[in-house]
Design brief:
This is Phosphomannomutase/phosphoglucomutase. Pfam families: PGM_PMM_I (PF02878), PGM_PMM_II (PF02879), PGM_PMM_III (PF02880), PGM_PMM_IV (PF00408). Belongs to the phosphohexose mutase family. The protein is α/β, with parallel strands linked by helices. It contains 14 helices and 22 strands. It has four domains: about 140 residues, Alpha-D-Glucose-1,6-Bisphosphate, subunit A, domain 3 (Alpha-D-Glucose-1,6-Bisphosphate, Chain A, domain 3), CATH 3.40.120.10; about 100 residues, Alpha-D-Glucose-1,6-Bisphosphate, Chain A, domain 3 (3-Layer(aba) Sandwich); about 110 residues, Alpha-D-Glucose-1,6-Bisphosphate, subunit A, domain 3 (Alpha-D-Glucose-1,6-Bisphosphate, Chain A, domain 3); about 80 residues, TATA-Binding Protein. About 35% of the residues lie in helices and about 20% in strands. Strands 1, 2, 3, 4, 5, 6 and 7 form a seven-stranded mixed beta sheet that branches. Strands 17, 18, 19, 20, 21 and 22 form a six-stranded antiparallel beta sheet that branches. Strands 9-8-10-11-12 form a five-stranded mixed beta sheet, with helices on both faces. Helix 1 packs across helix 2, helix 1 crosses helix 4 and helix 8 packs across helix 11. The longest helix is centred in the N-terminal third of the chain and has 15 residues. The radius of gyration is 22 Å and the shape is globular. The N and C termini lie far apart (about 45 Å). The mean pLDDT is about 95.
Length: about 450
């Protein structure tokens, strides 16, 4: 097929509908391009449980081997398990997944050795150019020495590495409901939690890339309903929800109420600062709660505010030597995990924090959840720039108000803030607001929405 990759290659990964937008013939070209751009003589691949994933991953491996690279296939895995392999083996990697997208989608998350991300500015643009060129002119000539393709199981080693970073062996016994959403959490969770003082209640652990029960996107509250109900029915201590490739983890307390990812970021930040002697930088994006930098400072750390998006977080992690980073979307990044994101490691921290004391989770996280937030609210607008300019004009001259343009427009005072960011792919403005109390937050949110939707 002649490739039109404009809708397929995103800022940080490859993602599109199979076979409409891409197929195994293109995957093979991506494998060859990946080898040429990274200069890799060896690499590692993994894939999720989507029906198209094994074939796409095998085709990528063929293209890479044809170009002279030795490929280690770790097979079924979570994205953070692939990052583990990249870090532990010191190899570039490619993970075949479309994360939380519907079943007809698939994609590739690529990284250099040590799980360093490959994005538009770090090789992905050149990979796209080569695939487009070769899709028209034909695949490149094979290397003088083709590479080999071998299999290796990393699940036990991955689980052992995570458990080496958080001691949960002496916690009180906990009942934990886990909703894997028929995704890769069903593959990794039983091994990671094996032998720990945890009574595991599995929900949708059967690997099924058609997602028969609900979408594998825990950022949507509708996809947490089953977990919340099961936590209450079981009288469980907490619930965990993973997305399709199990790199994000959402937490539900003993009441069946979702816990803000900002509160989890603050909780884990405090624990990681304690592990690192009460000092170090912690990265947070600009729409996490103000609780996060407050907790970081209270525990001796230095908060570093960044734009939304894992490429910005990972870049700041590397440049600052930060020990931890967190996002509102429940991505959690760890220095001790090659600066990569792993929801499973964050989940172990939550289990350790909860099991190391006697309070219920709702009481434990209350100290980290100090403000009232709106969550992200999307509005369809015809002209994003005009609406953002209208907000700027409405607030620019108000006393006590500051504006900044780090990512979209952030309007803030001592008592509240909100951020408006345009979507890069849709005619949307995304609003996040936070205040000291619910009434103030609602007032700020509604005033901003009235301008956005005017």
């Amino acid at each position: 097929m002649t490739a039109d990759l404009s809708q397929l290659v995103k800022a940080y990964d490859v993602r599109g509908v199979v076979p409409d937008q891409w197929d195994e013939s293109l995957a093979e070209l991506f494998g060859a391009a990946f080898v040429q751009v990274t200069g890799a003589d060896a690499l590692v691949t993994g894939h999720d449980m989507r029906p198209s994933s094994p074939g796409l991953a095998a085709a990528f491996a063929r293209g890479a081997a044809r170009s002279g690279a030795d490929v280690t296939e770790i097979g079924l895995c979570s994205t953070d398990q692939l990052y583990y392999a990249s870090g532990a083996f010191g190899l570039p990697g490619a993970m075949f997944t479309a994360s939380h997208n519907p079943a007809r989608y698939n994609g590739i998350k690529m990284c250099r050795a040590g799980a360093a991300p490959v994005g538009q500015d770090t090789g992905l643009t050149r990979i796209r150019e080569l695939v487009e060129e070769w899709s028209e002119s034909g695949a490149p000539a094979p290397a003088a020495r083709p590479g080999t393709v071998t299999r290796r199981d990393t699940l036990e080693d991955y689980a052992a590495h995570l458990r080496s970073l958080v001691d949960v062996t002496s916690i009180r016994r906990l009942k934990v409901v886990v909703d894997a959403a028929n995704g890769m959490g069903g593959h990794t969770v039983p091994t990671v939690l094996a032998g720990l003082p945890v009574d595991l209640v599995p929900l949708y652990f059967e690997l099924d890339g058609t997602f028969p029960h609900h979408e594998a996107n825990p950022l949507d509250p509708a996809n947490l309903v089953d977990l919340c109900e099961r936590v209450r029915a079981e009288g469980a201590d907490l619930g965990l929800a993973f997305d399709g490739d199990a790199d994000r983890c959402f937490v539900v307390d003993e009441r069946g109420e979702p816990v803000s990812p900002s509160a989890i970021t603050a909780l884990v930040a405090a624990r990681e600062l304690a592990r690192h002697g009460g000092q170090g930088a912690v990265i947070h994006n600009l729409i996490t709660s103000r609780s996060v930098p407050e907790v970081v400072r209270e525990n001796g750390g230095t908060p570093v505010r960044t734009r939304v998006g894992h490429s910005f977080i990972k870049a700041e992690m590397a440049s600052t030597g930060a020990i931890f980073g967190g996002e509102h979307s429940a991505h959690y990044y760890f220095k001790d995990f090659w600066n990569a994101d792993t929801g499973m490691l964050a989940a172990l921290h939550v289990l350790a924090a909860l099991g190391g004391q006697d309070e219920p989770l709702s009481a434990l996280v209350a100290r980290y959840d100090r403000y009232s937030g709106s969550g992200e609210i999307n509005s369809t607008v015809e002209d994003q720039a005009v609406r953002v300019a209208a907000i700027r004009a409405a607030y620019a001259d108000r006393p006590g108000v500051t504006l900044d343009d780090l990512d979209g427009l952030t309007v803030s005072t001592a008592d509240w803030w909100f951020n408006v960011r345009p979507s890069n792919t849709e005619p949307l403005l995304r609003l996040n607001a936070e205040a000291r109390d619910e009434a103030t937050m609602a007032k700020v949110r509604d005033e901003a929405l009235a301008i956005i939707r005017a």
